């Protein structure tokens, strides 16, 4: 570096520092650590407030029913009477049986061919899961 004096290098250094300070937003006369006059607040968008979606109450399980009222099924088709009890007691909780109401001890093999003449639990009485309901039945073409 011939022809460049120490004073010239110092001046170049000071100019570089001043440029750096100006680029950072400080004036060249400020010392490091000093704050400048308070800047005007920057325009910011208002905070976005979003409402949380309404939360549904946690699902509550329906209480398990443990008793029912016995319907009047006399005159019904035997299969329909059995299906009614199964639906009423949540698909198969109560037990139904049947017998030949004529006393001939015939088996009710095809329940659709029989009609109910009597029921062991009277209509309006309470039945539970441990109730056994017996239907007295005859063939459809027979009288009770």
Layout of strands and helices, then pairs:
Layout: H1 6-23, E1 67-69, H2 78-88, E2 95-100, E3 114-119, E4 126-128, E5 132-139
Parallel strand pairs: 2-5
Antiparallel strand pairs: 1-4, 3-5
What does this structure look like?
With 144 residues, the chain is an alpha+beta fold. The protein has a domain at 67-139: 2-Layer Sandwich (Trypsin Inhibitor V, Chain A). The protein is 20% helix and 18% strand. It contains two helices and five strands, in the order H-E-H-E-E-E-E. The strands form two sheets. It has a three-stranded mixed beta sheet, with helices on one face. Residues 1-25 form the signal peptide. It comes from Pseudonocardia bannensis. Residues 28-54 have a biased composition (Low complexity). Residues 28-63 are annotated as: Disordered.
Give the proportion of residues in helices: 10-25%
Which secondary-structure class do the elements indicate? alpha+beta
Side by side, the strands of the main sheet go 2-5-3
Nearest-integer average pLDDT = 77
Strand content: 15-25%
The CATH architecture name of the domain at 67-139 reads 2-Layer Sandwich
CATH class designation of the domain at 67-139: Alpha Beta
Radius of gyration: 48 Å
CATH topological fold name of the domain at 67-139: Trypsin Inhibitor V, Chain A
């Amino acid at each position: 570096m011939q022809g460049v004096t120490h004073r010239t290098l110092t001046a170049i250094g000071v100019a570089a520092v001043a440029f750096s300070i100006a680029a950072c937003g400080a004036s060249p006369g400020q010392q490091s650590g000093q704050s400048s006059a308070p800047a005007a607040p920057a325009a910011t968008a208002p905070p976005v407030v979003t409402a949380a979606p309404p939360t549904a109450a946690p699902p509550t399980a329906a209480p398990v029913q443990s008793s029912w009222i016995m319907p009047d099924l006399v005159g019904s088709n035997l299969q329909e009477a059995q299906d009614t009890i199964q639906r009423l007691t949540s698909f198969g909780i109560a037990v139904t049986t049947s017998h030949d109401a004529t006393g001939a001890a015939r088996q009710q093999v095809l329940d659709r061919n029989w009609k109910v003449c009597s029921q062991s639990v009277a209509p309006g009485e309470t039945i539970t899961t441990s109730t056994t309901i017996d239907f007295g039945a005859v063939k459809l073409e027979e009288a009770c």
